[in-house]
Amino acid sequence: VMRRFAGSRIKAILAGMGVAVIAPSSTTMSVLAVQTVREGHLPPRRVLPVMLGADVGLTVMVLLIALRLDQYAAGFVAVGVVLFQFTRAQRSRGIGQVVLSLGFIFLGIMTISSSASAVSPEGDLIDLLTIASQYPFLLAAIAAVLAIAVQSSTASIGLAMGLAAADLGELNPMALAVPVVIGANVGVGVTLLIIAGALPAARRLALGNLIFKLTTAVILLS
C-alpha cells in the first residue's frame, strides 16, 4: 500500500494525510515510516512526502479538539466498543478500533482541558506562564521535550489549548499556544530520529523531516 501511494509526491502527501487522520498518532506514523525504509520497501526520498502529509493530517485532530468534540468522548468510546467487540466483520472491527482510539484521545484531552481550565488567573502558574511567554524559543523547547516524553504532540497541544481557553488574566493566550504547537511538532521530529536508530537510510528520513520542522519553527518564532 505504501509503495502504491508513494508513486508520486502528491499521492504520497495525500496518503500521509489520510493515515494520520485515521490513526492520529505521530508515533505510529514515525514507526511506520522508519520500518518501511528499514525493510527496503521504499527509499527515504519517497517516504518523506508521506511524513510531511502526515504532519498536515495530524492537525485535523487539533481542529476536532478546537471544535470541542471531546465533549462526546463517551459516545465515541461506546460506539467503538460495540463495533470492535460485538461484530465479526473485519471492516467493522477496524472502524471500531479507529472510533475507539478517537474516543480515548478525546477523553484524555477533555481531562487535560478541564484541569487546565481550573487554573486560577491569580496563581503562581499564571505568573510563570507570563514569564515563559516572553521567551518563545524556550517555551517551544519545553513543549518539544514534553511531546517526546509523553510520545504525543496532541496531548501537548491539548494542554496549551486548555490553558488558552482558561481565564489567564492579562496573559495573551496566543503568546502561549503558538510556541507550544511549534515545539510539539519539533518534538515529533525528534521522536522519529530516535526511532530511526543507527540505520543510515532511516536516519536520512528522520533528519530530513526534522530539518523541515526546525526551519519552519525558526521562521515562525523569529
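the 2nd protein, sequnce then structure:
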Amino acid sequence: MAIRTGAAFIAGLRDNREVWLGSERVKDVTTHPLFRPSVESLARLYDMQHETAYRDVLTYRSPSSGQPVGASFLIPRTRADLAHRRQMIKTWADATCGMMGRSADFLNTMVTAWAAKSDYFAQQSPECAERVLRYYEHCRERDVFLTHALIDPQVDRSKNRAEQADPYQCLGIVDENKQGLVVRGGKMIATAAPFADEILVWPFPPTLTEAEVRYAMVFIIPVATPGLKIICRESFTKLGQAADHPLSGRFDEMDAVAVFDDVLVPWERVFLHKDVRLVAQLYTGTRIRELTAQQTNTRFLSKIEFVYGLLCHMAEAIGVQNAPPVQETLGEAATFIEIIKSSLLTAELQAEVDPSNGVMYPALQPLQIGRTWAPRMYPRLMEMVRRIGAGGLMQLPASVDAFDSPIGPDLEKYYRGAQIAAREKVGLFKLAWDLVGSDFGSRHLLYELFYAGDPSLLMAGFHREFDKRACMDRVKEFLATT
C-alpha cells in the first residue's frame, strides 16, 4: 500500500470503534462535529506526503517494496538519515504549529526503534523478535497511525499495581490461551486514541516488582478491537469561525482513558509478557529514548518558533516592539529557539553507530536538554504572551463576525493596532488567547509540563546520567596545585 492519502486515513477510522464522549457513544469520529476538525488536520499530514513540495522530505523508498513510505519509519544508518528524519518531523510539526504532539511520526518512531533492536525481544523468544519485525513492516507499508496508553489510572499512587483493592484496576493479564492473552483494566493517557488505527500498551513508568508479573506486557491492537472502550475527556474543539478559535478549532488531539474488558490480544501482537525485567528495561534496552527524543525536541522547536513569531507580531501590533523591556523579553524567547535547535544539531553531530545493529543514534544528553527545559520554557513563553497582550487579551469582541454588524465602525476605531487594522489585530489576539486563555491552551501548558514525566525527576535524572567525572577531576587537579 505504501503512503496513504488523507481520504484513506479517514476511511480507515470508520470501523465501529467504541468511543465515548460524555454519555454519547460516537458513531463516527470522522463526522462528529467535535472530532472532525482534528481528523481533517491529521488527514492533511497524510496528503502532504503525496505533494511534490514535500514528498522528498516526508518519504523514502521502502527497502522491501521500493515504494515511497513515511520517513518516520526510516532506520537511520548515517547522520544524513538522522537529518532526514528531523526534517520530516519538522515539516509535519510546522503544519500543525507544533500543537499535535502525538501525530503519527511519534509512535512510528517508537516502533522503528523496536525493529532496530529486535534482538532485545528475542530474549523472550525468537518468535517475539519476528513479531516485532513483521509488525514494523506492517506499519511502514500500510502507513498505520498509532497511539499509546502507558500510565495506570490515577487512583492510589501510594500502592503498586498488585496492591490495589481491585487487582484489575491497572491493566493485567486475566488468562492466556492458544489465541493469545486476555487482558482487563484501564490505561491513561491515550492521546489521539479516537483517531488512531491501533494502540500500543505497556506499563510506564516501568517500576515493576516480581509481585506485578501479571501487569508485565507489551502489545499493540486495533482501536476497534471488541471489548476496548475509549473514554474521552471534554472536547476543547471550538466550532465556528476559524478566526475566533484558530488553534482549538483545528488541533484538539483529544486525550482518553482506554478500558479493556477482557480483551483478547492475539499472540501475533504480543511482544513481551510476564517477564518483569524485559518489560521494565524496554525503554532503555531498545534505545527508544534517543529516537523519540529527537522527535519530541523537533516538535517542540516548531511550537516555540510559532509562539515567538506570535510574540513579535503582538508587540508590533501595539507599537511596543522597540521598548527595551519588550526587546529583552523577545530576546529571551529567541534564545529558547536556539537552545533547542542547538541541542538537536549537536545530537546529530555527536551521533554514533551502535555496533550491535549498525544503527546511527543521536547523542542522548543534548536531546535531554529539550526534555528537561521544555517544562520551564513553555510556561515562561505563555507568561510572555500574557505580559505583552495584557488587557488586550480580555477586551476581544465575542466574534470576528461583529465587524460586519452595526457595531463594526466602533470595533474598527477602538480595536485597531499601531499599524494594523482592527480586524487583523483582533485575529492576532484571538490566536494569543487560544494559547493562554482557553481550555485548549491550558491543556497544552499541562502537556508541556508533564509529557516526558515529572519535571523535577527529569532534571535529577539528567544529573545522575551526566558524565560528571571529567568536571570533578578538574576541580581535584586544581586543588592539588594549591
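The first helix runs from residue 6 to 12. Residues 349 and 468 are 21 Å apart (CA to CA).
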